[in-house]
Amino acid sequence: MPRTIRITRSHKLATAVLVAAGSVTAIAATGGQSDAQPAAAKTSIAAEKVAGVSTAKEAAAKKAAQETAAKKAAADAAAAKKAVAERKAAAEKAVADRKAEAKKSAEKARSEKQAANRSTERKAVAARKQYKNNLDGWIRESLDIMKKKNIPGSYEGLHRNIMRESSGNPNAVNDWDINAQNGIPSKGLLQVIQPTFDAYHVNGTPKKLTDPVANITAAANYAADKYGSIDNVDSAY
């Protein structure tokens, strides 16, 4: 026969205490688990924030490095461009300087040549024999030219024929003889017609029929060709 167990008041109190204690333990366990979850979440969020800040700093540093590199590249390009411009300017200046120097040298040489020419001309003028502007001077100048051109004749022969033909008048004109009638009158100191003057004109004298020296030398040249010398002429020729 089974044994009957009596539950006394003491048993009931002890049971109630145990139940209560279990409930408290269960509640405590549940509460601890609940508090642990928010802490882990907070730790995760903090880690994410730290990671985000680090990434932002890295991005900012990278951007700054890129900007610095870009500025340096721009500065280098500007410096290179400036150097090219300076070299070009220097080369252009060198060319301009050479041209200016060449021009200056040419002008100096031209000036020196002109000065030398003027000096030579002055010396030539100073050395050139001066003749009087009269019959004596004309005859003497003509004789010097005739000598250089190997045209024979003397002072006496020229003077004698001049006095017979024109009386020493360089502008004398014969307007009555056959030459005048044919439209080519004899003119000048030795009464020369234009065709004869043109044919026997002596280089170095004016190409003017009534010029005293040109008229005498042309007539002497003609006489030398036709008569051997003006000295051999004693009448109209």
Structure, explained:
The chain starts with 8 loop residues before the first helix and ends in a 10-residue tail after the last helix. 72% of the residues lie in helices and 0% in strands. It has 237 residues and is mostly helical. The radius of gyration is 68 Å and the shape is rod-shaped. Helix 5 crosses helix 6.
Structure described in brief:
By secondary structure, the chain is an all-alpha fold. The protein has helices at about 10-125, 135-150, 155-165, 180, 195-200, 210-225. It is rod-shaped.
Q: Tally of extended strands?
A: 0
State the helical fraction: over 70%
C-alpha termini separation: 210 Å
Report the radius of gyration as a whole number of Å.
68 Å
Shape: rod-shaped
Oligomer, anyone?
single chain
Estimated structural class: mainly alpha
Q: DSSP strand (E) fraction?
A: under 5%
Q: Report the major sheet.
A: none
SS summary, helix count? 6
Task: Give the SSE string.
Answer: HHHHHH
Low-pLDDT stretches are 11-21, 23-34
Instruction: Kindly report the average pLDDT value.
Output: 84
Lay out the secondary structure.
Blueprint: H1 9-127, H2 135-148, H3 155-165, H4 178-181, H5 194-200, H6 212-227
Write a concise keyword list for the protein shown above.
6 helices, mainly alpha, 72% helix, 237 residues
